[in-house]
Amino acid sequence: MAEKALKDVRFSTVSQVMTKDVVFIDGNKTVADAIKLMKEKKVSSLVVNRRTHEDAWGIVTRKDVVSKIVDPGKNPRTVKVFEIMSKPLITVSPSLALKYCARLFNNAGIRRAPVFDGKEIIGIVSNTNIFNAIKI
Predict the structure, then answer these.
(1) Strand pairing of 45-48 and 121-126?
(2) Can you tell me the distance from the alpha carbon of 47 to that of 26, in angstroms, rounded to the nearest whole number?
(3) What is the domain count for the chain?
(4) Do 37 and 62 touch, CB atoms closer than 8 A?
(5) Which of 8, 47, 93, 113 has its CA 20 to 30 A from that of 21?
(6) What is the pTM of this model?
């Protein structure tokens, strides 16, 4: 029974499990602004807006705040988001099978990826979304 459930998850798609509410922030905002927004929206990451259409998106996570601000003792009110974000961002297609998404996460050493439909970011998928899709 569990094998069938896991097989179903592996062949589900990103669009079936992704979170549709993506929270964005500008890179020139302070890390303090990012922390406040993450707490208000109850999210663990923010997608950093592109400066131009040709630019790449970035991402800032709670892990970035802890490892790049708290650990070295920097002031979140003076450090800008673009100074600690990861960029360019790995994005995934909404039609990508979860087994390939999980493999990508593992190989790239990431925990989440925005879902890009070719025009805009329509969601975000994380290890948690994939994990929660397993029916046992």
Answers:
(1) unpaired
(2) 9
(3) 1
(4) no
(5) 8
(6) 0.88
Entry field: residues in the chain: 136
Q: What is the pLDDT along the chain (136 residues), one digit of tens a residue?
A: 344 466 666 678 999 999 999 999 999 999 999 999 999 999 999 999 999 988 999 999 999 999 999 999 999 999 999 999 999 999 999 999 999 999 999 999 999 999 999 999 999 999 999 999 887 7
Residue-number span of the structural domain to which 22 is assigned: 2-132
**Nearest partner of 68 among 76, 59, 58, judged by Cα:** 76
| 52 secondary structure, DSSP code | S
State whether the Cα torsion 125-128-131-136 is positive or negative: negative
Residue 52 sits in a domain whose CATH number is 3.10.580.10
Q: How far is CA 86 from CA 32, 35, 83, 98, 135, in A?
A: 17, 16, 9, 23, 33
Q: Taking each helix axis from N to C terminus, what angle separates 2-10 and 98-108, rounded to the nearest 10 degrees?
A: 80
d(CA 110, CA 108): 6
